[in-house]
Design a protein that fits this description.
By secondary structure, this protein is α+β, with helices and mostly antiparallel strands. The protein has helices at 2-22, 34-46, 65-71, 112-130, and strands spanning 24-29, 50-55, 76-80, 86-92, 99-106, 166-178, 186-195, 201-210, 214-218, 221-240, 243-262, 271-289, 292-301, 307-311, 314-319, 323-336. The longest helix has 21 residues, at 2-22.
């Protein structure tokens, strides 16, 4: 009876030792591998393994993992390779103690965390295959996803903020008149006053004053026409933020001073002519400041009755048939609407 009890205790001790060895892993420490070795130890400990860290001397030749594991009663031995791009792994056959697996676990890129996870995963899978452990191996560790930089929405241009409509404005501009007849083109100055009761329509009055006479040269002499236009108009406006498109119509009174220089035997004669000029116009403008607007206006009118320039009792040209004006306008607000 005593002998049977002794044999039972002996085999129980062997079984306990084998079970302990099957749950123990020896990790060889090499200089500079502190981070990855402790990472492997943490992963193994989380799975229930007993981990033995064995420090190796930097001057001595590295021991084989088989001898390292057997000396410490471990089922497996592990060591990070000198380049730290792989982990050497040795696993014993639990029945014979011979080598069951001997390999180097690597990953595609240098990543200590991923390398440690992959080595522990391989160790556990091999022990499961040997029957040392039970249960299914964890899912394969995946390469860490490279974080893509957050998408930055393209910057949208800041829309122009609208500017209040000026109730009363002064207009100053420079005009260029185009004469389809034999008279030459000429430049004028523009002065005006605009009243805008609402944002969508306005009334204005303006004067176009000649800066240079329109001339007609012939063998009989030279005729010069200085044209002054006094006009009133109404306009409709389409607005978007600080931009404005305008369409209008009006009528004006043209005062023409005609003078000439005659070559003998002809005699020069000065005259003053009056003509009505109905017209239509369109303009585009932009408010560049609270009270300052810049714009470009095109006007087309027709003088009635026709203002004829004669040399030697012969009709040589007609002013304002039609009248075409292009004007650059600077509009300055002097009175704003009540807020």
């Amino acid at each position: 009876m005593r002998r049977a009890v002794c044999f039972f205790l002996f085999f129980l001790t062997l079984a306990w030792a084998a079970t302990a060895a099957a749950q123990r892993v020896a990790i060889a420490r090499t200089p500079g591998d502190r981070r990855i070795a402790h990472r492997v130890k943490a992963e193994l400990s989380a799975l229930g393994f007993e981990v033995q860290l064995v420090t190796e001397s930097s001057s001595a030749e590295p021991r084989g993992l088989r001898g390292l594991a057997l000396d410490h009663g471990a089922v497996a031995g592990m060591r990070a390779s000198p380049s730290k791009t792989g982990i050497e792994l040795w696993i014993a056959n639990p029945n014979t103690g011979a080598t069951a697996y001997e390999e180097v676990v690597t990953v595609a890129s240098r990543n200590d965390e991923l390398l440690a996870l992959r080595a522990v995963e391989v160790l556990r899978a091999r022990l499961l295959k040997l029957g040392v452990l039970s249960g299914e191996p964890p899912p394969a560790a995946e390469e860490p996803a490279v974080e893509k930089p957050p998408r930055v929405a393209p910057e949208r241009p800041v829309p122009m903020s609208p500017i209040g409509v000026q109730l009363l404005s002064v207009d100053v501009g420079a005009s260029y008149a185009i004469e389809p007849s034999a008279l030459s083109n000429y430049e004028s100055a523009r002065l005006g006053l605009t009243l805008a009761p609402t944002s969508w329509w306005s009334a204005s009055t303006f004067a176009v004053l000649p800066l240079r006479a329109s001339e007609l040269r012939a063998s009989e002499g030279t005729a010069r026409v200085n044209a002054t236009l006094l006009a009133a108009a109404g306009d409709l406006h389409l607005r978007h933020a600080r931009l404005r498109l305008s369409f209008g119509a009006g009528a004006g009174l043209a005062v023409l001073g005609v003078s000439g220089e005659a070559d003998p035997p002809y005699q020069a004669q000065d005259e003053r002519l009056l003509a009505a000029v109905p017209f239509a116009r369109m303009a585009a403008s932009a408010a560049v400041a609270e009270r300052l607007t810049l714009g470009l206006e095109f006007l087309a009118g027709l003088a009635a009755p026709p203002s004829v320039v004669r040399l030697d009792h012969t009709d040589k040209a007609e002013w304002g048939s039609p009248l075409l004006l292009a004007t650059f306008i600077v509009q300055l607000g002097i009175l704003a609407h009540d807020p």
